[in-house]
Amino acid sequence: MPDAVVPEGAGSEDLTEILDLLSERIARYRVSDLVLVYCNAAWAAQHAATPDDLVGRRLEELLSPAELDGLHTQLGRLGPDAPFLYDPVPRPAPHIPDRWVEWADRWLPGPDGPQVLAVGRDVTDRHRAEEQLAVSEAHFRDLADRSADVVWRVSTTPGPCLSYLSPSVHTLTGWTAEDFGADLEHLVAVADEDGRELLGEAMAGLPIPERYDLRLRRPDDTWVVLEVQMTRLRDGLQGIARDVTEIRSLQSDLAHLALRDPLTGLANRRLLDLLLRAALARVRHSGGSLIATYVDLEDFKLVNDRYGHQVGDAVLVEAARRLSAAVPEADVVARLGGDEFLVVHESGEPTDRPDDRLLAALTPPYLLPDGTSIRCGATIGVATTAGTGGQDAGPTTSEGLIAAADAAMYAAKPGR
């Protein structure tokens, strides 16, 4: 897999094997030139090729004119302000007659320009089921019984009851249709809190999303995530549910990797910028202030040179843990790179500063596995939007606040 697909240190080979086992079609391409930088085996198979045959080629060479039109439509809607788009309309599968695919795209900003992660799932069974829901009841049940997705129907008169549940529910949830029974007690019992709330609103006739995720507890106490599509009938509700557990986990992992420092788990620069922009907007309305504390570990290079990078990484992880533990949970703690960190504190009082707590947290020695203790002090610099030194106001942008804290840190370094 190309280096651009998975951030450094994220286990590229293991993730490649996992993605190649999925039936979902997964591809990643650059926005600037539409060059494919990654695809899994399922995406390549629809083009009668292997990933090695396709990576590096432009999508114009691989997609039909209709598919390219759809791609450009999605790109026109995707961006930093709309990073995830779901296309609810099943599309014909490329080069595979009578198969239908549903696509979701995620915008992934990166240092070399934005990329798009596209995930497609074969929804042929569900598409055919949806086309036939208006046909006779006998035909509906025959088709639903054969669907890999869960087809369900709830009647609301004279009282709410589960009037139909396809046999595939056992494969997806571990519970049989008989376990669920006619009433809704079992369904409510195995749903999570959000699911129970949604079910209650649906039964009360309140508006709920036509498509939503429902988490159900399996008999082995693991959880399955079902994406439920619902249609209201004159006398009840009817819909289809599909298993999206792996996809939701993958989406969560990819989002985490894109916004978190892989070594410490702290916010990276990209996430820091997003959080800072939101915090600046809040304090402009609330009249509060932001205090940014820039932290630089002293003598960290000597630790790396003397003990090796493995020990250096352990020191960084422990420093990140100490910083996070020293401030309220609402504060932002980010790793800027190397041995530099930033802590952002939101306060209604400009004098409420966390710098003393941070220095105290970083002062104790670091204990190595062999019992050796080493010291790695810190220099900090503080900047605030409230302004200091007679200024009426401090920095008003995320870049300005970070730069001001950085300058204050360098001014505070010993010997300056």
UniProtKB/TrEMBL annotation:
Name of the featured protein: Diguanylate cyclase
Domain GGDEF: 288-416
SMART domains, alphabetized: GGDEF (SM00267)
Alphabetized Pfam families for the sequence: GGDEF (PF00990), PAS_4 (PF08448)
